[in-house]
Amino acid sequence: MIHPTALIDPRALIDSSAEIGPYVVIDGAAEIGAGCKVEAHAQIVGHVVMGGGTWVGRGAVIGAEPQDLGFDPAMQSGVILGAKNVIREHVTIHRGSKPGGATRIGDGNFLMAGCHLAHDVVLGDRNVIANAALLAGHIQVGSNTFIGGGAVFHQFLRIGDFCVVQGNGSFSKDIPHYCAAQRINRVTGLNVIGLRRQGFSAEDRGAIKGLFELLFCEGMNLSQAVEHAAAREWPEKALRLLEFVRAPSRKGVCPVRPGRAED
Q: Do 21 and 38 contact (CB within 8 A), yes or no?
């Protein structure tokens, strides 16, 4: 199921059930798993491991060199994709920037047309990243998070689990688990609808809400709020929010500014 116009590096390992479309380029020691489909004009570059059932859309480029002025192209790194990912047209995913490193994507993600994952991004499972969203290098994204189209993210920050991020937003700070974020570094509250749809119990949702209000809405700075919160008992799912804000990235955590008031 390899189209005769495809150009395949002899080092590539392609499962017999995979489908390689017209004018696809596989340039390097890629591993294409069972049931994968790579559509016309897509390029798989270098050491890319692609889990079973993954679909790569037309014109996507996976595994190209990082956009890092200090990068040595001779250095060995790659991209590791889990199973059953959908990668739509013209998505770009760059390989890791450190020797032996990798950009890593989990299972069941849906990357819409034109979005970009830079070097060393780590993406969890079952995320949806809409058209033209841009994630810079070393960003970590959890699981079950939705990122709206055109949203942009500065390098090294973290985005938690079960978040929802408005399209066209701009972010240079961490977005904690369970949060809704919009505009410029603004958390507006909890992703209440998302938590309900994902089956969080009323008890867990209530605990998460109580912790969120203690951390962000009681007038304390974040260090003080974390200290107060740590003195109390929390159920496991709420505790994950506390652990996230207790150990922020170098960027810090987005402040909470509810509503739609102008900056």
A: yes
User: pLDDT for 92-129, tens place per residue?
Assistant: 999 999 999 999 999 999 999 999 999 999 999 999 99
The domains of the chain, with CATH numbers, are 7-156 (2.160.10.10), 196-246 (no CATH)
Residues 123 and 141: beta-carbon distance below 8 Å? yes
Cα separation, 71 vs 214, whole angstroms: 44
252 Cβ neighbours under 8 A, 6+ residues apart:
173, 174
Q: 247 by DSSP, 3-state: which?
A: coil
Structure tokens at 195: 């938590």
Cα–chain center distance at 220: 31
Distance between CA 163 and CA 180 in Å, rounded?
6
Say what angle helices 236-246 and 202-216 make with each other, to 10 degrees.
30
Q: What is the rounded average pLDDT for all residues in the chain?
A: 96
Three-class SS of residue 157? Answer: coil
Q: Is 208 in a helix, a strand, or coil?
A: helix
Residue 260 pLDDT greater than 90, yes or no: no
CA distance 248 to 199: 27
Q: Say whether 223 sits in a helix, a strand or coil.
A: helix
Give the catalytic positions in this structure. 119-120, 137
Which one, of 89, 86, 253, lies nearest residue 158 by Cα? 253
